[in-house]
Amino acid sequence: MDKKVRLGVIGTGHMGQYHVNVAKQLSDAELIGIFDANAERATQIAEKHKTKAFGTIEELLKETDAIIIAAPTFLHHKIAKQALTEKKHVLVEKPISQTVEEAKELVNLAKQNNLILQVGHVERFNGAVLELGKIAEHPILIESRRIAPYNSRITDVGVVLDMMIHDIDIVLNLVKSEVTEVKAVGSSIVSNHEDVATVVLKFANGCVASLNASRSSQAKIRTLNISQKDSYVFLDFTNQEIELHRQASSTTQLGSGEIKYRQESIVEKIFVHKDNPLKQEHEHFVKCIKGESEPMVKGDSDIKTLEVAYKILEEIHGKK
After folding, report:
1. CA within 20 to 30 Å of 230's CA: 84, 168, 192, 245, which one?
2. Is pTM, for the whole model, over 0.85?
3. Which residues constitute the domain of residue 28?
């Protein structure tokens, strides 16, 4: 595809408006228009970003090559299936769908039609995360913290599918081993879903991951710590920064009945190319459509992420 990719955005709520803003900045794509079930909001967003508000999804699909879906989670499967059936490439916000079965159906439909189906794990495009894979080769222990104040706009899912799913995706991609055990606890604080959750994942290769998420805290913290045999990695998602700690030397001195111990370590700050992760995600999506890049977030990978997320929810809420 040599011409610009014609993009449409479905859903212009909290996350959707960011997608609209980024889509109109792309050099290899053109924002054709948007759709929102709330016609008044669609008109407002369209006027703000100088694009067209379409009256129906069908009308928008006819004019586009690819669709970005930022509608509520319960609509992801229906809209994505409609777009894929119409031979349109799809970037859908996480989680891909409400069930693993629905996710598998979408992945298979995309494969059958030779289409790009990308899931919006935007943290994969964080500059620090892109560098992480180069230095975190054999994790022994992974610890994540993702806490934030409550966002009243997100009511259809709990903290696991809203926030923790980013860390599940990153951890599975880093460890590259089967999850053999899942332990999880959580509780509802401000919504009808779990608002805080603590999870321990054990992998077949011996790695252990501890994931903590909260959307009822008064601070915003997004960090990932990785212990390896000869190094310790600290990643700050917000600042897109990585610190690499290595032990340099240690000495023990004995004398006059006492032991003096000195340990020295080296702290390296890894250079990170910082950019807007959402913009990076859009650019990657367009490159995949044009055949210039291989998808970084593949459908099969997201199915595994969703499977682990639902095992966690079963641990927290019990099987339904």
Report:
1. 168
2. yes
3. 5-119
